[in-house]
User: Fold this.
Amino acid sequence: MTSRAELQNLVTVTIKGDAGTMALINSVYDNIPENPWGAKDAYVSFGSHQKLRDDADCIRTGEHFLQLDAWSRAVGKNGCQQIVDRLEALFLDAELSLAVNALVLTVVQSTDVFKDADGKTTHGVVIIRAVIEERSA
Assistant:
């Protein structure tokens, strides 16, 4: 499994395994369905995933910047901010591991919460930085 796919799977499992986060959102989506909101009027989706090569002395390493997008239709920014705070807590200096590749470092690079252009949705962005040593399966 590629480091990119393995990291996304780990992030999905980590979010879905956290009862506090799942109490706030409907689900986590890679491909957003027609009606993603559910009863909670909130969900998380995957945004961009940038990978920078950082190889050295026969070690294949990639530095990943994975964007998580939080979407909320709760009144005000507080609902979305709660989701962003939960995501930040899950991945800030997290001690997670991958099955195939070696996860060297996971940190939250940045977070942001702002009103979406539609005027009724609040959008949160969490950027996770992960350094992964790539290994053959």
Strands lie at 28-29, 42-53, 60-72, 102-115, 122-134. The first helix runs from residue 3 to 16.
